[in-house]
Amino acid sequence: MKILFVYPKFERYLKKVYAELFNFPRIASLWEYRMPPALGIQILIALTPPDIEWKIIDENLEEIDYNEDVDLVAISFFTPQAESAYRIGDKFKERKVKVIMGGMHPSMIPEDAALHCDSICIGEAEIVWKDILDDARNNSLKKIYGPVLAPPSNWVKPARNVYKIKENYDWHASLVQVARGCPRDCPYCNIPGIYGRNIRLKNMDSLVEEISELSGEEFYIIEDIIMFNSKSIAEYTKELFTKILPYKNKIFLTSSLIFNAKPDFLQLLAGAGTKSIYVTFGFDPISRGIYKNDRKVIEYGKNIIDRIQNEGIRLYAAFGIGFDEDDESVFDAILDFCKKAHIVTSEFFIVTPFPNTPLWYTLKNENRIIHTRWNEYNCSNVVFKPRRITEDKLQSGFLYLWKEFYTEIDHVESLSCFAQKQDNIEKTIEYMQKTKKEKTK
Asked: Which side of the chain, N or C, has fewer Cβ within a 10 Å radius?
């Protein structure tokens, strides 16, 4: 049996509308830079027996040969890729090739994806993948597999050698999964809906072994759970970062401003090689105070950021806009805070109601969902009716933030926290030199 694993193409919607932003260095653009695919396919390959032949296509890099002789097409994707995934599924089904879909989007809205495939895997695949392969061999695929929550003892190390990361992608960080599940109720997040509300942590020895194989390289821990300010999580994270100290990695983390910001904890993160923390703004109380220009909250936020950056860790800020509390004043409030807090690496996104999240249900019940053209659900488009601002003002405010922030920023410094292609670095330097010349004219 031969399997074709497909990671579908993203629709770069803004490329058609805001072409001037593509003057920025590639990795500065939320919609432009290429990073390695999510871990789903790598996990499936690790679970696949050696007697099964397989091939990967990242449609963002290469075209699909629909005439290729394969027995099963496995498509893993999240919402902005859905229209591409559906197109791919339909074309293979026309050839009578069996198609199975999985990942974030099919798990959250299986009834939509089911129209374009023979079978769907809902949630985690570790327990059901063997059954899927056996059924595919016997031409007896079920319509639905799962949902199942796999215990950490069933998790496998992703097959990391399947992508040529340094050759094909702009950002070189490998992805590392530490945990699944989350008890929080962030309205736009689909993690609890797929992985449950109980936190499951990867076995420490297995995790340390996995990281040791990335010695000296950059990796991205994809869950913000390890930054939670709770005793049990803090103890787990401290043990992990103590054990990986010898490997001299470059670590990229993610969090909100509500995290364990104690000096000893930040020193441990820095000592283990943490170079950047991706911090999302907009939904937590600190962010809301910043957006409202509350002086006390702004000072508190600045203090946390100072503590991070004084340890030599770059804060990479991600500012969400379009929350129900946001009006037109939010754009300048964000830019003003960036200057006060000395933020030099940032991106901006429009709040997006991904299917079957709490935000999705709220907006749907209020008749505020504008459309379900999934390719535009990429955090760069307004797909719902905002409460305190028009759709056009929110879209133009998004563009305004990108242009205003990155017009004055030293891109070389801003992007220095990424391990990226040499070609990108050279083009960034060229862009900066050109910009400086234009300013002196």
From this structure: C
